[in-house]
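Course assignment 3, question 2. Fill in each field.
Student: A.L.
Task: Predict the tertiary structure for the chain below.
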Amino acid sequence: MNNLEIAWVFLEIADLLEIQGESPFKVRAYRQAAHVLSELDEEVAHYAQMGRLTELPGIGAALAAKIEELLQTGSLAYLERLRREVPAGLRQMLALPGVGPRTVRTIFTHLGISTLEELEAAARAKKLRALPGLGVKTELAIQHGIELLRSRPSGLPLGLAFPAAAELSEIMAQLSQVQKVSLAGDVRRGEEMVGQIIIVAAVAPADQDAVLKTFQAAPYVRQTMRTEPGKTTVLLGIGLEAALITVPPPAFACRLCYHTGPPAHWSALVKWARARGFELTPDGLRGREGELQLSSEEELYQSLGLAFVAPELRAGRDEVELAARGALPELLRPEDMLGDLHLHSNWSDGTESIQGLARAAAGRGYAYIAITDHSQALSIAHGLTPERLVEQEKEIEEVRANYPHLFLFSGIEVDILADGRLDLPDDVLARRDIVLASVHSGFKQDRETMTRRILTALANPAVDILAHPSGRLLGRRDPYAVDLEQVLDAAQRYGKILEINASPERLDLGAEWARRAKEAGIKLAINTDAHDARRLADMDWGVCVARRAGLTREDVVNAWPLERLREYVRLRRERAYANS
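Answer field:
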């Protein structure tokens, strides 16, 4: 066994001990030992042969004996005993996205739940949200995760697939035999649904089998699905397949580009290369004078006379021609975002106070945020009445005084009722700094009715932003029946902003419709719809959608400075009320 494989054994032991409620010092000792082993420059077997295991930081006689047993037998009796003691159902819970041993112990201790079936029933009965450290979002995520594990879906939302992909990639990068490693495929392109995780690693041919074997033993790999020369495919605990492709180092740049895809982009590159006297294959780029030595993808594109095409832009449309003309857009970056215009506090169904949201936003370096709690029709979310909005405004003003470098917009997410009317009187909405309008009920209306409903709301002068325009929940709920062509036409006509909802379960608008909105001259906002402070980090998922749509800072209103955004909203409303 190599260092990483032994480290993973110790991490599993730590998880099982934490579930059992063992001393945190003992749990920490195993985690620390795992960290030490994974960071070693030499193989731990060398230390064992020299009798120097206990010289390693945090490795005492007991841990050294376990390392010796693993090196000699490939297994560990202590781990097998723990696996027998901890119910299999509890260990299965660790495969659920976002569920760690502490959460598993909390659920087991408070509810006596030890199987996935019992856990699903408790989630459906809304029993998990009241447990310490959990909440509504965690409860819903657990319920959805169980459904995904059972259904073996053809794909997972990017927000669920990426953390697992990134962890696997980082694990491979730690192996001494791996010279370079990168994510490829759907994840690298930022596709909203990921069909398979693909990782490309540059490995000398003599080391490929050992690297593939280690990959198969990675944490939470449930089973090896397929093996072939230079490639192995495994099934992860999240219900998604992951493939590791090992390639000779000289072929890494071309193989990475090929496996990043999509096929249409690769075909366009091959055609472009051929027209200029090159032969491009997954194994390399050959010119008139022989094989070119490429150290990176950037060199590949440069050798073909092209500007580098960001993975998110690779779609097989016109990106190669744009790259040839130097006309690719300067894509939006996460650091370009200056604020978040869709946040929920504990005045409705959020878990964070306005003060807490402000603190988190200031920590991210934002210039502004908008507090946009639900309106009164959404009673399940404790939606705000006009009277409660007045009270909330007082608190917003108090928090503003505490954060002189962070402006708080006093906003609302108003419900679009079944007939297109808004859930609050026009005079109440007119006093809000930012008004988002969205559909939260009646999802099964027919296409004509739903479209008319949204168009009616967009005609209201008070509405600034249409939130999560299609209503989809990735992998869980299809978009409602709505003619988005007509929605875009109305947004353009009325000067409305369309939202890219950055919540990883939504990513709504999707990239294709966001691109069409840009082409129509419609401005967009990327918002997290966060219900707690941690979710402000979801902004990155929305930026990923924007990059796939080819958006720049000019296209996204909350990448603008505060005064420009305020002036834009003010002028939009003036024109809207003048024309109403």
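Instructor remarks: Residues 3-20 form the longest helix (18 residues). The chain has 24 helices and 17 strands.
Grade: pending
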